[in-house]
């Protein structure tokens, strides 16, 4: 067997490994809740961001962007009611995705409406928006509705068996997470404050994002350098070591704690929770099944 052939076979085995749909189903539920929360947060200021009396009326949007960014709102009348309708459809699709009803179709509608809302005013997008959009698109092609879903319940009633199948879409989603962390680390290394170790100090002192002040002991230059360079090191570790079985779970826990700690001190909307949910994609189905069984046994025993 040639080296190239061996590499191709290893790649195929990795990409098309057969596994239960437990992980992607758990991700679907939590991700659907994120979409609902994101939609409700957006609804509070929808008229400001995409309304006719807001910062970017429809005419101004078309003048600035033309048809370069697809949005249903670019083809519908400019009245605020149409924007509210698209937002309502998005929330309905997100709830349907969460419970796993018509899962692929719900993901497709959620993606189309999310894309429309985001593209209507791309000037207000932030990191989590891009992650939500990419993952919603990939869910269209996933096996997310094959278990823990209304779709599974209906299929079981019809006598359809639950079988293992290729995890190729889950692999693509995992790769997106790795690429995101790698690009984030590389981008940071291009900044002078990240290289000299002061970036975290400036980020945590920015009043626009600050949720809580750091403890006094954490306001030193030494701490700032440790936190700054540690952030870059952790992002590189998340990009690479999530694929190493022996290192996966320590890195997963570190990543989840990192995002949770960021949320304590910085107001980043849903970014931290979005990334924590995405890290769930790296948890093997057997681990999730054992965790649920242990939790059930504990509750029953209690």
Features:
single chain; 302 residues; mainly alpha; 2 domains; two-stranded antiparallel ribbon; 15 helices; 2 strands; globular
Rounded to the nearest angstrom, the distance between the terminal CA atoms is: 56 Å
Shape: globular
- List unreliable stretches of 5+ residues: none
Q: Percent helix among the residues? A: 55-70%
In total, how many domains does the architecture comprise?
2
- The radius of gyration over CA amounts to 22 Å
Oligomer: single chain
Query: Roughly what fraction of the amino acids lie in strands?
Result: under 5%
How would you classify the helix and strand content by structural class? mainly alpha
How many strand elements?
Answer: 2
> H/E order of the elements?
HEHHHHHHHEHHHHHHH
In round numbers, the mean pLDDT is 92
Describe what this molecule looks like in 3D.
- By secondary structure, this protein is mainly α.
- The protein has 2 domains: 19-163, no CATH class; 166-289.
- It has helices at 3-15, 22-44, 46-50, 58-65, 80-99, 103-120, 127-139, 150-157, 168-189, 192-196, 199-205, 221-240, 245-265, 271-279, 285-301, and strands at residues 18-19, 165-166.
- The longest helix has 23 residues, at 22-44.
- The termini are far apart.
- The mean pLDDT is 92.
């Amino acid at each position: 067997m040639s080296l190239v052939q061996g590499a191709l076979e290893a790649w195929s085995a990795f990409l098309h490994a057969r596994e239960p749909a437990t992980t992607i189903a758990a991700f679907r539920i939590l991700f659907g809740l994120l979409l609902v929360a994101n939609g409700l947060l957006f609804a509070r200021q929808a008229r400001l961001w995409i309304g006719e009396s807001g910062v970017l009326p429809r005419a101004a949007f078309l003048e600035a962007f033309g048809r370069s960014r697809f949005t249903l709102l670019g083809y519908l009348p400019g009245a605020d009611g149409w924007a509210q309708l698209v937002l309502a459809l998005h929330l309905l699709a997100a709830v349907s995705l969460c419970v796993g009803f018509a899962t692929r179709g719900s993901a497709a509608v959620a993606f189309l409406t999310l894309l429309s809302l985001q593209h209507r005013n791309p000037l207000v997008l932030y990191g989590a928006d891009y992650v939500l959009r990419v993952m919603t698109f990939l869910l269209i092609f996933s096996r997310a509705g094959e278990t823990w879903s209304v779709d599974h319940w209906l299929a079981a009633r019809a006598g359809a068996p639950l079988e293992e199948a290729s995890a190729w879409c889950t692999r693509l989603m995992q790769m997106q997470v790795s690429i995101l962390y790698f690009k984030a680390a590389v981008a940071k290394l291009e900044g002078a404050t990240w290289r000299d170790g002061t970036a975290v100090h400036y980020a945590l002192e920015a009043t626009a994002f600050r949720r809580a002040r750091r403890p006094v002991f954490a306001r030193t230059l030494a701490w700032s350098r440790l936190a700054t360079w540690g952030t870059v090191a952790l992002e590189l570790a998340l990009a690479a070591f999530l694929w190493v079985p022996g290192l996966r779970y320590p890195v997963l826990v570190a990543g989840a704690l990192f995002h949770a700690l960021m949320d304590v001190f910085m107001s980043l909307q849903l970014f931290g929770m979005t990334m924590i949910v995405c890290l769930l994609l790296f948890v093997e189905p057997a681990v999730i099944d054992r965790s649920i069984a242990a939790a059930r046994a504990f509750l029953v025993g209690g």
